[in-house]
Here is the input.
Amino acid sequence: MEDDIKEFGCKRLENKETGKVIQLISIIGEIEGHECAGNNTKTTKYEHMLPLLAALEYDTSVDGILFMINTIGGDVSCGLALAELIASMSKPTVALVMGDSHSIGVPLSVASDYTFIAPSATVIIHPVRMNGMVLGAPQTYEYFKLIQERITTFISSHSDAAKEDIEKWMVAPGILTRDLGTILVGQEAVDRGVFQAVGGISDAVAKLNEMLQKHN
Here is the structure.
């Protein structure tokens, strides 16, 4: 169990009164994908999360999953793949954003069945970016446009935020210094329809327990 916390940020929470078991999974730091981040960077590793989530879907001893999220974003393709996997799970899932949910962290945060955000937590929605030299500008623009379409469609499909609004938030000027995008904090993210409620760990656990009772 201690190794699970150290290596994967996971812990099983068992309610002895009800007999229900919740798997806690933390999604923190940078979403590491096809390339490894630096040794000093806190990451959530794509290659660890995929088999972990698949195993939990198959594990009959686990009743529900609680995701605790504090991420700056990262690999777009891998982050979106993880979000799709979370959204397709049959077990009840709840997500709680405690610090930040930036960039590709937004689809990951809204992929669960029910979503909470802490009062001081922030969400940043911005256009897709690419590092390094880019050749073939027209082709690259169309590729970025396709990726953004996938992201906005996923967020709107798993929240109450309209796709048109998300697209506007992505390219809003003046909010982020020398950049485009929108920052939403706590209650504002709920008011805009991105998350379902403002809350903390007690709210998230209570909601998941409620869902578990209905699930059976």
Observations:
- The longest strand covers residues 21-32.
- Residues 137-157 form the longest helix (21 residues).
- The helical segments are 2-8, 46-58, 76-87, 105-110, 137-157, 163-170, 187-191, 201-215.
